[in-house]
Specification:
single chain, alpha+beta, four-stranded antiparallel sheet, 60% helix, 13% strand
């Protein structure tokens, strides 16, 4: 596939799920696709307390966005396989048992007396040349690549959402610990002020002010507890859980001192983004699919060549007349009242819209 600037676009998978998925289009009917899909739908069990890596692994197998994207990728792979099979040899066996009120003279002369007609027919066909089918294969392949990149994008987004949710839980917990410590300190100070008030060392207004500060601290604790619950619910949602009940999140490890590394070259990172970002790769695949749709529309007035063969037996009691035929069929559309012209114009406009996107 070629980028808009003329350079070749190389698809670079980033993870094991992506690497496996590239093989699905070549193993459309194999058990590997079913195994991978079953792994995506079942996944590992969730243990408590949940580490970030465990939460991410669980989300990659249970988040409905990933499950839906995996199903769409599988459907696109099967569709690409179906279109490719159209050009392969096709074989059909048919049998007819007919009773006529009267047998036509041409059949009576051939088959003999009687009103029954039994027919066994074996037909074979092989498509040799079809511009329309070639474009359909390119469209199906592009649709698969789009579904593949959308699955990668879903994986990236879910991984980010889980990490953001997990660290938000840690942040809310730290805030709750700080608010609890502040409340305990204020409650101890309140006891001291009340004792001073009983001794006549402070005024009553000082006691009232301290009680207000303690009440405010209790409200902050309640708000912090609710923030922890909300952050836990957001993490559960990112993981694909229907509820946050029973979800225990492990505390964050001590990050230590991060190593000081040199900043990467910006231009190099941009080039890597062009090669790896699923949004860009999906749009490139959409452009290829739109171009294939334009070629398919333009093929409406182009010829098709098909190799055909037939063998049949026919008779009034038991098939006793047999014949066979082999040949090549050429189909040339002559006039379609402008259907091809309008279809090509619509496909061209769609291609231009994708290029603009």
């Amino acid at each position: 596939m070629t980028r808009t600037d003329g350079r070749k676009l190389k698809f670079v998978p980033l993870d094991n799920v992506t690497r496996v998925s590239y093989g699905l289009i070549r193993r459309r009917t194999s058990g590997l696709a079913l195994v991978v899909l079953a792994w995506l739908l079942t996944g590992p069990a969730l243990a408590a307390p949940v580490e970030l890596a465990e939460a991410t692994t669980y989300a990659l197998t249970h988040n409905p966005r990933i499950v839906a994207a995996a199903h769409r990728r599988q459907a696109a792979a099967e569709q690409a396989g179906r279109v490719r099979k159209i050009s392969e040899p096709q074989l059909r066996l048919s049998a007819d048992a007919l009773h006529y009120s009267w047998l036509p003279p041409n059949k009576r002369n051939l088959l003999g007396p009687g009103n029954e007609d039994y027919l066994l027919s074996l037909d074979a066909a092989k498509l040799l040349y079809s511009p329309s089918l070639r474009a359909q294969v390119d469209i199906a392949t592009a649709d698969y690549l789009v579904a593949e990149q959308r699955l990668r994008r879903a994986i990236q987004q879910v991984v980010y959402d889980v990490a953001a949710g997990w660290y938000q839980v840690q942040r809310a917990r730290k805030r709750l610990e700080a608010d609890h410590a502040s409340l305990r300190q204020l409650e101890a100070h309140e006891e001291i002020v009340e004792e001073y008030f009983r001794l006549g060392k402070v005024a009553e207004v000082d006691v009232l002010q301290m009680r207000v500060r303690v009440a405010d601290a209790r409200q902050r604790v309640i708000a912090a507890e609710n923030a922890v619950r909300l952050a836990t619910l957001q993490l559960a949602n990112a993981m694909g859980l229907s509820t946050s009940e029973g979800l225990e999140v492990s505390p964050a490890p001590d990050p230590g001192t991060p190593p000081v590394e040199a900043l990467p070259d910006v231009q190099e990172q941009v080039e890597q983004a062009w090669l790896r970002r699923p949004e860009i790769l999906a749009t490139e695949a959409q452009m290829a699919g739109a171009e294939a749709q334009r070629r398919q529309a333009a093929a409406g007035l182009q010829p098709e060549i098909q190799a055909i063969a037939n063998y049949n037996r026919e008779g009034t009691s038991w098939p006793n007349v047999d014949q066979w035929s082999v040949g090549v069929r050429l189909s040339v559309p002559l006039f379609d009242s402008g259907l091809t012209r309008h279809a090509e114009a619509a496909a061209t406009a769609n291609l231009q819209a994708v290029q603009a996107d």
